[in-house]
Design brief:
346 residues; alpha/beta; 15 strands
Length: 346
């Protein structure tokens, strides 16, 4: 199949692309590279450096390539920024998304897998969280994703757009080739591993008095390769499961201190920590029920414990201590900037 992956130069998108290429699909990656990395794009994929909100150039791309489906992973994702600059999130995650699906329908492409987020739920009423949990986002990031989920539902009813949305909890881990490299980095696991010797920069623990087993927050971590496999399963079953929403999590919760202790065992040295006050809006526990994805998609995560996730991240970090900036440019990546070229074969 010819598949467009938006945000395919980012963390999850790069590994979704990698797994799709392994399955023999022809992949075009669209990314504006504001947060993504050119070196994160698989060498057998074509990279097109444009923004999904650019109507003219996106339209030209769809004229050139006869796409069968779209994996939509592009968007603004840093929660902290979403509290201070909400228009950036609504513009990119909603307006950009509407532009994408309008162009899809104009070119008779009606299959979309959407990267949503557990932030659509807001403060948990109960855990583990199921897909029937109330959706009450507490930041513009979660709100923008929820609004776009609702738009997809209306487009499905009115125009026949087939879609599946995935609400990730905490994506983590790495493949052998691709890993996590955000600037700035806000996720716990890469920051914990970045505090390994010789840097010895302490890891901030925001709150040590939560009603949990050790006083620190508990979160659900799911390996990024398992997320990629869910996308592949969804593509195969979208005709039967159109309009569905699925949680993607491990079903297990690990505290911040447990993550740090496990990382210390893997690297063979103590990781320094600094206890800080709680951050406003941080729930004590966030864990997912992924039973629906397991039952309906046949999704069976391969990485079922924290140490396996951490080990994959640590191996990638050791190979790339400066992230993607220390990787050689992949000259074999086919890079286009919206010029009309030959069609990708089916």
């Amino acid at each position: 199949m010819n598949i467009l992956v938006t945000g395919g130069a980012g963390y999850v998108g790069s590994i979704v692309t990698e797994e799709l290429v392994k399955k023999g699909h022809k992949i075009v990656v669209v990314d504006n590279l504001k947060q993504g990395h050119r070196s994160a794009v698989h060498p057998d994929a074509e990279l097109v450096i444009i923004d999904i909100a650019d109507k003219e150039r996106m339209d030209r791309l769809f004229f050139r390539v006869n796409f069968d489906a779209v994996m939509h992973l592009a968007g603004e994702t840093v929660i902290e920024h979403s509290m201070t600059d909400p228009k950036r999130y609504f513009h990119n995650n909603i307006i950009g998304g509407i532009n994408l699906i309008d162009i899809m329908l104009r070119h008779h492409v009606n299959k979309l897998i959407f990267s949503s987020t557990a932030a659509t739920y807001g403060e948990p009423v109960e855990t583990p969280i199921t897909e029937n949990h109330p959706t009450m986002p507490v930041n513009s990031y979660g709100e923008s994703k929820l609004i776009f989920e609702r738009i997809l539902n209306w487009y499905g009813q009115a125009y026949g757009l087939k879609h599946i949305a995935f609400r990730y909890f905490n994506a983590a881990g790495a493949s052998e080739q691709y890993g996590e490299d955000h600037r700035p980095e806000t996720h716990l696991i890469p920051n914990v591993l970045g505090a390994a010797p010789p840097d010895k920069a302490p890891v901030n623990i925001f709150g040590s008095d939560y009603p949990t087993r050790d006083g620190s927050c508990i979160r659900d971590y799911v390996h990024v390769l398992d997320i990629a496999q869910a996308h592949i399963l969804a593509l195969d079953k979208i005709n039967d499961l159109r309009g569905r929403v699925y949680n993607l999590g491990s079903g297990e919760g690990y505290s911040v201190l447990e993550v740090i202790e496990a990382a210390s065992r893997i690297i063979g040295d103590m990781i320094p920590v600094k206890i800080c006050p709680r951050r406003p809006g941080d729930p004590a526990v966030l864990t997912a029920s992924s039973d629906k994805a397991r039952t309906e998609l046949g999704w069976a995560p391969q990485f079922t414990n924290l140490e396996a996730i951490l080990q994959s991240s640590w191996l990638w970090a050791k190979r790339h201590p400066q992230g993607y900036s220390d990787m050689p440019r992949l000259e074999s990546v086919n890079i286009s900037i919206g010029r009309l070229r030959t069609r990708v074969p089916a």
